[in-house]
């Protein structure tokens, strides 16, 4: 886990959002910590930070970076982070059941017509005939932890294909990548900014799209501690407003491509400060652009997808049958899709 902080960041103003804007910062110098992964899909927070949208709301933001969803959820519950963006996991749901965490919005989504998450095969598995998800039976599928989004996606894909799949928990995304490259696992599913460079470098093969199995999948959510949701309403709404402005800028530049070529180039350079930082810009650019999936406007949440995910966790015996969407989501903050 690494940290990065910048205070008082100011920049160009983005497109207006329908969430109500404050006339001026009502929360001057309010410090908060935002959990993130170094993924293009977390760009709304990065944009809000770099372009001063958090500062406009009186928020002084520090980032904490993680390598998997579950540790981020634990950090929110313990107070080590205030807000975060990540996939729904068994750990997050369990924390919500204990009254420690709440989902307050939606972020990354699969959307028809937008190139989304890919299903990958290792070179060894591909050469042995696994050239489509229909050949998953008897194969191994990499996940970070049991109950992770990777587990959910892999299970739904396998069920649709009638395949018996072995899931291998490897704890970190980097470890899953290494296992795929070395042939220790046969398959994986991941966002395009990781999948396409792996395939382009000859380290794996793309054999399908997650959206073919999970259309309109709510990939990631915005969440916070139950304490923040209940007792820090002004701060939480301020965070969501700034996040939504960042998402609007990102979508206009790289998803809808309505902001022009210069704006797209500026956006990629901004994201490169956080994603593929170990690569030169020209080598990182394609991977970042390839990761440009929709981030929901106004942090809207696809409740149908959330319900489907809860149903899967329950069917696998990973959470209690008594848990409902109300357990997980504070709908008082949510623009429901």
From TrEMBL:
GO terms for biological process: alkanesulfonate transmembrane transport. Residues 40-249 form the SsuA/THI5-like domain. The keyword Signal applies. Keywords: Signal. GO terms for cellular component: periplasmic space. InterPro entries: SsuA/THI5 (IPR015168), TAT_signal (IPR006311). Residues 1-28 form the signal peptide. It is found in: Periplasm. PANTHER family: ALIPHATIC SULFONATES-BINDING PROTEIN-RELATED, TAURINE-BINDING PERIPLASMIC PROTEIN. Belongs to the bacterial solute-binding protein SsuA/TauA family. This is NitT/TauT family transport system substrate-binding protein. It comes from Rhodovulum adriaticum.
């Amino acid at each position: 886990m690494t940290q990065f902080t910048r205070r008082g960041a100011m920049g160009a103003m983005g497109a207006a959002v329908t969430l109500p804007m404050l006339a001026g910062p009502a929360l001057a110098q309010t410090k908060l910590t935002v959990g993130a992964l170094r993924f293009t899909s977390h760009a709304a927070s990065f944009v809000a930070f770099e372009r001063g949208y958090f500062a406009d709301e009186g928020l002084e933001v520090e980032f904490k970076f993680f390598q998997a969803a579950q540790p981020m959820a634990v950090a929110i519950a313990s107070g080590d982070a205030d807000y975060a963006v990540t996939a729904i996991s068994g750990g997050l749901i369990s924390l919500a059941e204990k009254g420690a965490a709440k989902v307050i919005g939606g972020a990354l989504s699969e959307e028809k017509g937008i190139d989304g998450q890919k299903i990958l095969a290792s070179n060894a598995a591909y050469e042995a005939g696994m050239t489509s998800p229909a050949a998953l039976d008897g194969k191994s599928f990499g996940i970070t932890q049991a109950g992770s989004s990777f587990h959910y996606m892999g299970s739904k894909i396998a069920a649709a294909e009638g395949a018996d799949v072995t899931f291998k928990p490897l704890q970190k995304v980097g470890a899953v990548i290494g296992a795929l490259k070395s042939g220790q696992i046969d398959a994986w599913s991941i966002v395009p900014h990781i999948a396409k460079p792996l395939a382009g470098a000859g380290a794996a093969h793309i054999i399908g799209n997650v959206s073919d199995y999970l259309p309109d999948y709510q990939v990631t959510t915005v969440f916070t501690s139950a304490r923040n949701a209940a007792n820090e309403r002004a701060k939480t709404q301020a965070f969501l407003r700034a996040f939504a402005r960042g998402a609007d800028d990102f979508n206009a530049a790289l998803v809808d491509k309505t902001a022009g070529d210069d704006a797209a180039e500026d956006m990629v350079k901004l994201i490169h400060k956080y994603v593929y930082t170990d690569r030169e810009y020209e080598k990182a650019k394609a991977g970042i652009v390839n990761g440009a999936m929709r981030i929901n406007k106004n942090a809207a949440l696809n409740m149908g997808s959330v319900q489907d995910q809860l149903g899967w966790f329950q069917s696998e015996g990973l959470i209690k049958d008594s848990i409902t969407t109300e357990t997980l989501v504070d709908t008082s903050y949510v623009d429901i899709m």
